[in-house]
Amino acid sequence: MNDVQHLRSALAGRAFGPHDDGYESLRRPWNLSIDQQPALVVMAESTADVQAAVRVAAGAGLPLAVQSSGHGAVHPCDGGIVVNVSRMTDLQVDPGAQLARLGAGQRWRSVLEATDPYGLIGLSGTAHGVGVVGYTLGGGLGITMRTFGFAADSLLGADLVTADGELVRADDAQNPDLFWALKGGGGNFGVVTSIDLRLYPVPQVVNGMMAYPGARAAEVVSAWAQWTQHVPDDVTSIVMLVTIPSVPEVPEPMRGQHLVMVLATVVGADTAALDQLRSQLGAPLIDTFAPSGYLRAAMSGMEPEDPSTSAGRSALLTSLSEPTIAQLTAAGGPNSPISALEIRHLGGAAARAPRDSSAIPHRDAPYLVAMHAAPADEAQAATTVDLMDEALAGIADDTRVGMFLNFLHHGSTTDEVRAAYDPATYTRLTEVKRDYDPGNLFRYNHNIPPAT
After folding, report:
1. DSSP code of 397?
2. What Å distances lie between residue 143 and 8, 20, 125, 297, CA to CA?
3. Which position among 99, 134, 356, 360 has the lowest Cβ density within 10 Å, counted as fewest Cβ atoms?
4. Cα separation values, 149 from 152, 327, 345, 350, Å
């Protein structure tokens, strides 16, 4: 472990080994199902710290994983080095140019709070505690994606430390092949230390949800599916089946209830589309739709904020036939271990970007279904995943091969990652990987091995 001791001495930030106070909390990612035991957790304070960690790991043949908020952890980095970049939180907003430059440790909440006074937004998702960089590199399905596209489409440039420990710039002018791969290829090509993001002027949105009894799930999902055939691109929506926990934080009418909910964000003030769906379904149990600024809308996500165990499966849908709706609403029923089943409406601006502008595959998919659970132990996790796989097998006629990187489940295999992309995109990604990480140092992710 001389290499590890050398690394400790080279760092401006601190490093934590198994015998150090603080190691136990720092070694754990957000998904507590990944019980990793690294030899060292490096709390990087700067690009120089990242470079030092990469060079030591590469020179000693040690595994290396990168973590910010911890949401992107995929495989346990046992016996290796975890580079935690959560302290790299530089943030600069240029309202005139409508762009933000931010460090690898920034989370969406801080970025949106900084851009809000200027009436500008970044393309955030449904969980404001997620790290901006990992979310963006994996594609990023935001709450305004049908209006503005994937978050990766707003990436203007990135600085990253490659496998040789060198700092490299990637944008349209410098290393454009690497820049293309970063937009949808995740953390396979280096440790991104900062990114530049395009911002968008959005003074107002209409955001909220309509909740109906879970017994009406099939009816609501069917009506929502028909409704999505005609909504304009300024409407991005999700239909979700969920059993609400009985806790004080939840409003009384929702506690312990199995509900089907339509969640949506409308860019602007036009509520005609929402009025149409509400008129078709009748008065909901709960209706929270209201005009607001984007920041308030982004903070209203229902995803858990505290670390927990996690299991999930997802699939891209070509359509939502009645048999598929019946299968999915049964899988997400009131006694199911699946805690949330969501169907996202895709398309719009996300589908119109040039295919070769990024590594994001399958832009033409109209829907995505994702199932989530927080199993109590490994046995429950196995049972729940079996149920999810059975549900997906039952809707095979309405699914297609492929997935966005951020929606692959943890523990993904090389074959599963390959299947996420179309063959041409995957081949090109492996060639970029060969150029920048020929030894596959960055493999504790949804891994793309280098071309041979």
Report:
1. G
2. 41, 41, 5, 9
3. 356
4. 8, 30, 12, 4
276 sits in which H/E element: helix 272-281
Domain boundary among 84, 105, 136: 84
* Same-domain pairing of 391 and 286: yes
Report yes or no on 31 lying in a domain. yes
* DSSP assignment letter at 409: P
Q: What is the pTM of this model?
A: 0.95
Residues 52 and 120 in one domain: no
| Tokens representing residue 224 in the block | 């929502």
Whether 169 and 229 map to the same domain: the answer is: no
Tokens of 274: 């929402």
What's the mean pLDDT in 207-227?
97
Determine contact, residues 384/337, Cβ cutoff 8 Å.
yes
How far apart CA 229 and CA 226 sit, in angstroms, is: 5
Helices (H), 294-334: 294-298, 322-331
pLDDT, tens digit, 9 for 90 and up, residues 143-197: 999 999 999 999 999 999 999 999 999 999 999 999 999 999 999 999 999 999 9
d(CA 98, CA 122): 10
> Phi/psi zone of residue 362: left (φ > 0), alpha (ψ -120 to 50 degrees), beta?
left
345 Cβ contact list (under 8 Å, min separation 6):
146, 228, 231, 236, 237, 238, 366, 367
Residues 62 and 10 in one domain: yes
245 and 276 part of one domain: yes
Give the count of domains, the chain: 3
* Domain carrying residue 104: 91-201+422-436
Domain identity same for 402 and 430: no
- Asked whether residue 110 falls in the same domain as residue 259, the answer is no
Which DSSP category does 131 fall into? B
Q: Which residues pair with 213 in a beta bridge?
A: 259
Q: Are residue 234 and residue 325 in the same domain, yes or no?
A: yes
If you write DSSP's letter for every residue of 362-380 in order, what string do you get?
A: -TT--EEEEEEE--SSHHH
